[in-house]
Here is the input.
Amino acid sequence: MIMIMVEQLRSLPHAVRILRKNQYLFHQGDVVTSMFLIEAGEARLIRRHLDGRTVILQRALVGSVLAEASLFSESYHCDAVANTRLTVRVIRRDQMKAMFENDKAFASVWASHLSDEVRQARLRAEILSLKTVSERLDAWIADKGTMPAKGYWKTVAQDIGTSAEALYREIAARRAR
Amino acid sequence: MIMIMVEQLRSLPHAVRILRKNQYLFHQGDVVTSMFLIEAGEARLIRRHLDGRTVILQRALVGSVLAEASLFSESYHCDAVANTRLTVRVIRRDQMKAMFENDKAFASVWASHLSDEVRQARLRAEILSLKTVSERLDAWIADKGTMPAKGYWKTVAQDIGTSAEALYREIAARRAR
DNA sequence: CGTCCGCTTGACTCAGATCAAACTTGGTGG
DNA sequence: CCACCAAGTTTGATCTGAGTCAAGCGGACG
Here is the structure.
C-alpha cells in the first residue's frame, strides 16, 4: 500500500535536495510549498521548547513522506531536521494536491496512509501515558516486534520518553533475569 | 471544513443507535462494518491494559466521527464507550467508502480531517513527553486556549496523563501566585 | 435527605531524572 | 598501526515530582 503511494509520488516531476546532518529542511511556521519524499537517510520532526528541550514528534526513514499532515494546511507545524546526510525528493504541494484530486487510487492510498499515521500517533501517546519504563518498553516492543541493535537504544529511550539511563537500567534488569 | 464533512455524512442513508452511559459501541478486534457520527452525548476511545488500567486514546464530542482511522481497515483497533447517554448515526462503511471515491469534495475534506487528527494525536504525544505536570498543563492550555470550568478538571488530568490529585495541586499552586 | 462525584489537602513512598565518572567501540587522521 | 575523539553504554549516588492511600468538604440531583 505504502509502496504504491511512493511509486505514484515518484511519477511526479520533482527536484532533489541533499542536506547535511543536522541541517533543517523546514521550520515551524514556514509556508508549505513542497512535500518531501525521503530517498536516503533519516529525518526527524521536532518541536523546540522555550527552555531549549526538543521533543521528537516523529522519526522518518527512507520511503516516508514529510510532512503528510501539511498537504492541506498553510504552514508547517513543526521543524524537520536531517538526522544523517539526507536526500529528499521535493514535490510541489499543488502538484500533489492535483494528483489527490484527479487520481482516485492515489486519493484512497493517501487517506489510508493518513489513517495509519493517526493510529501510530495515538499508539505513541498511549505508550507515553504508561507510567513505568518497564511498561513503556513492553508496549514499544509489542508494537515493533523486537528490540533494536545496541547502538539504537538511546533512540528508543527518546521514543518512549525516558532518559537513556533509565532505559539502560531496565534492559540490564531484564538481562539479569 | 469539519462542518462540511458532517453535512455530507448526514446526506447518507443511516440508522440511529442510542447507548446508555458506559455501554460499548464497539470493541477492539470487531470487524468494521459501520462508522459512527455522534449526534448527542460524548464517547471515548479507550484501550484496556492487562492490569485493568484504561488509557484514553481520544475523547469524541458531538459532530465527531468514530473511528475515522478505521475507514480503510478491517477491524477496530480500540474500544469505544459512551461517556454519557449517547446518540450516534450509524453509516455503513461501504457507503462511506463509495462517497470518498465518488465525491472529490468529500475526499478532500476527509483527508484534511485526517491530517488534523494526525496533528492532534502528535500534539498529545508531545504533551505526554513532557515530564512535569506544570509543563504539561502549560502545553495543554497553549493548545486549547483556556482552562475549562471546575467540573472538568479531572478530565484534563486524564488528557495530560497525570493523577487528578497532581493536577489539583498544580492548580492550587498557581492560584496561590 | 442521603448518595455520588468532583475537589482539596496531608502524609508517605518510590520510580526515574539528573549529575558524574568510567568503559567500550568505531571511525579518523597522522 | 596507533593515538585520539565522539557517541553510546554502564553503573553509582542523590534528589524530587508525582502516584497512592486516606480523610474530609461541598454541590447536584433523584
